[in-house]
Specification:
4 copies of one chain form a homotetramer. By secondary structure, the first copy, chain A, is an alpha/beta fold. The first copy, chain A, contains 8 helices and 13 strands. Chain A has a 7-stranded mixed β-sheet. A 4-stranded antiparallel β-sheet of chain A has the order 2-3-1-4, with helices on one face. The first copy, chain A, has a two-stranded antiparallel sheet with strand order 12-13. Chains in contact: A-B, A-C, A-D, B-C, B-D, C-D.
């Protein structure tokens, strides 16, 4: 059964929840999940609501138009999606392939509810792996000189494939502000440290030198500042003096995979709402 | 500012959320939190909704009466409470005092939003500690012979103090079904293992003999079966062969305190809804 | 540089550590790691010691013979291995392929220091995946009637390939005591619950029905009792009422992979010493 | 039974372990624990060894003198202690008393193997609490003007009480390099974030503003740089958008207590060896 999902953020006001739920009820929808949060400090109302379209009076195509009146009334940022529309996902990767591999395995066995039409890399290492999953692979070599042109080429590829979500699965190139602005709050990165600690290059080496006793991974939306976008999910694992740098990297990889995995599932279920420099995760 | 909180469970049906939120909206309430969950397997609708009473049209005392019409319509189990009514809490304890101590410390420093009029124990060990916090202490010695009478005495004490919530903070007596039925879903226990493993006596010894590599703690509502009531919260910590039984106990104590602490805060904020043999925790 | 590793367990006595370390020192070995543990309750001495063979006076082949005199003196169970002898590993799997996949990925990228000559399954599902990694795949269909014969066939395959370690990466057949006795303390299983809770079939369904708030995974040596062998590693992850059974399974998979991964690395580094119904993990 | 414990660090060389264990063996000691680690990057040998003095040929007072010959030979930094010498501990605290409270509770119930003769604070808040435990309390008010003098007074108090270990249990004054140099690697601090993230003031506010999804606590030795000393232990806990800043603080407190608790136990058991900017924790 097809479900509709609304993600809403707007200035807080009386009656928002009542108005939204009435809209659904009066059109004969059955609410499956509703979760609401208010950010006091910013006076912001945030909501995720999901309802069944079985017997709903409005056609799928008419819902947005009808809802836009309510949205206007409350100055909402909103996004409407449907569970039978599979999100279209592109994965970017460099030379570390474990996250890519983990995602593609789940995709192959039907555990990721999405369509992955392409993988893009600045290296050729992933070609064979990606080919094995019958996904189109694009090696886009990036240098300081050709970066602008190559990003334009990538944008073209992504637009052509109507990509909804870009997953940087250990992609070690910094995307330009121009690129990012083409896909606002649609690019997810996995960083191999518990941010804000150890941003930037070689976080495991940094962590090893520092002698920390936990390492971790962080998923976040990409914005214009390196490793500074709104955090979605984080996890950590204990390490000790008995762990070599190699052990840090190996143990960290398992955390990276798990955190990215969780994040991609959340994104595909439209459970992440990003506003300001924070996220609300309706899990 | 005083808030009203409704906890609702009922058979799922169309329009529940809309009806409830409309009730609040039309009386000029501002919804602060709303979270809803549907248990598919049991076709059960579960909800927590909290709204500000600033400018609300109904008197505090009239809200329940008015709401009961909606409740009847949807066959709801429901509970209405107000943030300015401090829950009244009794703590039961035996000889291990760390959980009691941790709760009383928070209580003393104003970090627990409740009133604790009494502590009951089947031993005298906690007397001095409790006295130090100016709380009334009752040593109720229980034997197989006097159990019935002593429980009646306890019930009397609890009723007299209008106790809303009973916290078994390492109380090592089994409460009779008669006692439990006087306080349905109002008795919380902390058990020093990750249930359902190591129920019953001496869970750390059991865990140590078994050679497990994690230990844990579980909070749950008390029902008629030992350590079988609906689970509220659980956590675990890594152990190794280097840990002695004494280390298991010490590390476990920190987990017990943290899990019970989290649970009591959830209960005081009316964020736990228990139905069947499960809980919904609106955290 | 090649290292020798000794794993020792024996009745505790004075002078064991001094005698062992002297043996290494007098033969010009440089100790890299030494870790010792005494199980008080069983009066058992347990040790792992690793030394560099650069400049060691004894030939690799002579070390064991020479050491056996010390071993005899202290009635040791001992195992000598060398880091330049790659352990030979067989993986058993049924229909859930995520653990297999994760191990083969690491193997392919040189992150598992071992040789994997074969994968055995009671189903055919893994054939293509295994073939992609150029590893020999054996579909050994097992029924109550043919079990004895099929296990003999498997033992033959394993002996022929000189297998040191068998990894049950979600293999859902119970191995007979005869099979297990052929590979004592050389068979590792991953079970998808935090044992001893939810042993046996469908642990995630059991956990979901029970309403637990953590799920987990356990690796253990296989002995004659189902899910009862000495535990090697365990980990858990938080779940909530918002998680469906499908979510339990998905989140659990990430824990299973991480726990098995950690366990296989420990086994390959000869860091696990199993005695009685417990393990010492020299991590 | 009294045990001797040696903590050793020195440049790596052949024969250290053999020499140390022989020293113990030839004097009829029975080694209870021995754990050794080599830091490859710094070519440093690190060891903790503990043996029973039952039947040991050397008097307690003669062991150090005898051992110093070996220490000289290998240029060791070393520390000899005995389990029947209770470490003398001072606790420093400011206005947040939860860590102090947790430690004193354990102390009172005999769970901390140490002697705590005094608590020092720059505020008067802890006076009553400390008095309840019959421990001497010193309110040492510190201002920029009187800091030097007040620290001299504190040093005097600490020297007079022969303090072995100083625990900063949420003490919010920066100790001067002069003070620190009086107690090298004998001052432990608990910081309420997972360092190196959120060093300095108000880490929970920083974390809340940043929108992180885990918070944590870190124990470390104090050196001349704020929150930069060698890390001993760390742990984290998940948070979500549903947690207010108040919830961050409350959940964090439980992590702080558990991490500091673990650290103090490790220190009392002489299981921490600090060298360079790192620690080895023989747990």
């Amino acid at each position: 059964m097809n479900h509709a999902i609304l993600l809403i953020s707007c200035p807080d006001a009386k009656g928002i929840t009542a108005t939204v739920t009435n809209f659904i009820y009066q059109n004969q929808g059955n609410i499956i999940h509703a979760d609401q949060h208010i950010d006091d400090q910013n006076n912001t109302f945030l909501m995720r609501i999901e309802w069944s379209l079985g017997g709903f009076r409005l056609e799928k195509g008419a819902i947005g138009k009808e809802f836009s009146k309510i949205a206007e009334q409350f100055q909402m940022n909103w996004e409407l999606s449907f569970t039978d529309d599979l999100p279209r996902v592109a994965i970017f990767v460099s030379k570390q392939l474990h996250c890519l591999h983990d995602l593609l395995f789940q995709y192959f066995y039907g555990q990721l509810r999405c369509k992955i039409p392409l993988v893009i890399s600045n290296h050729d290492d992933a070609r064979l792996l990606v080919a094995g999953f019958k996904i189109s692979f694009h090696h886009v070599h990036v240098t300081p000189e050709n970066k602008k042109a190559q990003e334009r080429r990538e944008i073209e590829l992504l637009k052509k494939e109507k990509i909804d979500l870009i997953v940087l699965a250990r992609y070690h190139q910094i995307l330009s502000p121009e690129f990012v602005s083409e896909f606002p709050r649609r690019i997810i990165n996995i960083h191999h440290s518990f941010l804000p600690a150890f941003a930037g290059k070689n976080p495991y080496q940094q962590a090893y030198q520092k002698g920390v006793k936990v390492i971790g991974a962080t998923s976040h939306y990409v914005n214009d500042q390196l490793d500074e976008g709104p955090i979605i999910a984080q996890d950590t694992v204990q390490v000790s003096h008995r762990d070599t740098l190699e052990d840090f990297i190996r143990k960290g990889m398992d955390v990276e995979k798990a955190v990215l995995n969780r994040t991609v599932h959340l994104a595909l279920q439209r459970k992440i709402l990003s506003y300001g420099n924070k996220t609300v995760v309706f899990d």
